[in-house]
């Protein structure tokens, strides 16, 4: 049995972060703030916003680099990526999966094309999705580097202990697997826009209206450009407290 002392553990070694929100708010652009070398799997082919960034590579499947993922054959292409990515991971600090909601939609569309009527999904598709998704998720999350995942947002009804029912924002992943996805993730944040200033921020502490969590530092919210700056708020507060003393 291998044992590691808690004093030797680091919160920010090989972290897993999930950022969700409405389309167009900057989940993909947030990749620019990742320190180190980054490999992006763009599942919705929105990687054009990353053009010109020197420390970011995008996995593409056409010679001109215009297409990152085969949305017509998502099952085949995700398996190809998983099979081939281990050969280049030692060149990178971060792996980005952008975005899981798009992949989920493409998977069901592909299954629908292979159904009896060529359109609608059949009962077995809904039953097979949880195990399939979890296999993909665990394979990607077990890679030995930081993993940043994005998704669109959805809502769900939750019941409080006093019987009240709330509508809560959550990642737009089917409910059979969303708890596993968020449970295996160190940080789950919801990206929002301040209607008065237009500035973008991330909610990092959850409540009855927003699912969020942060087990990497003590921040409850941050600017979008500070998402990957772990522990800096705590260091600043400690310095300020020391100066006051």
From TrEMBL:
<dbReference type="InterPro" id="IPR027417">
    <property type="entry name" value="P-loop_NTPase"/>
</dbReference>
<dbReference type="InterPro" id="IPR006505">
    <property type="entry name" value="Phage_nucleotide-bp"/>
</dbReference>
<dbReference type="Pfam" id="PF13479">
    <property type="entry name" value="AAA_24"/>
</dbReference>
<protein>
    <recommendedName>
        <fullName>DNA-binding protein</fullName>
    </recommendedName>
</protein>
């Amino acid at each position: 049995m291998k044992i590691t002392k808690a004093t030797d553990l680091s919160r920010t070694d090989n972290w897993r972060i999930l950022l969700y929100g409405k389309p167009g708010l900057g989940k993909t652009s947030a990749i620019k703030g990742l320190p180190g070398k980054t490999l992006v799997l763009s599942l919705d082919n929105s990687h054009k916003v990353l053009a010109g960034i020197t420390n970011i590579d995008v996995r593409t499947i056409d010679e001109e680099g215009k297409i990152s993922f085969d949305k017509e054959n998502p099952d085949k292409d995700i398996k190809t990526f998983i099979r081939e990515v281990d050969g280049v991971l030692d060149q990178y600090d971060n792996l980005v999966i952008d975005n899981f909601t798009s992949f989920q939609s493409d998977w069901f569309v592909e299954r629908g094309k292979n159904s009896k009527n060529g359109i609608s999904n059949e009962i077995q598709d809904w039953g097979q999705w949880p195990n399939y998704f979890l296999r993909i998720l665990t394979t990607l999350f077990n890679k030995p580097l930081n993993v940043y995942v994005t998704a669109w947002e959805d809502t769900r009804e939750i019941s409080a202990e006093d019987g009240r029912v709330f509508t809560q924002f959550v990642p737009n992943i089917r409910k059979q697997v969303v708890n596993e996805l968020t449970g295996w993730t160190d940080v789950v944040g919801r990206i929002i826009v301040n209607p008065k200033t237009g500035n973008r921020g991330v909610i990092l502490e959850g409540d009855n209206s927003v699912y969020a969590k942060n087990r990497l530092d003590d921040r409850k919210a941050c600017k979008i450009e500070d998402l990957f700056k772990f522990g800096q708020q705590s260091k600043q507060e400690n310095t300020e407290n020391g100066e006051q003393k």
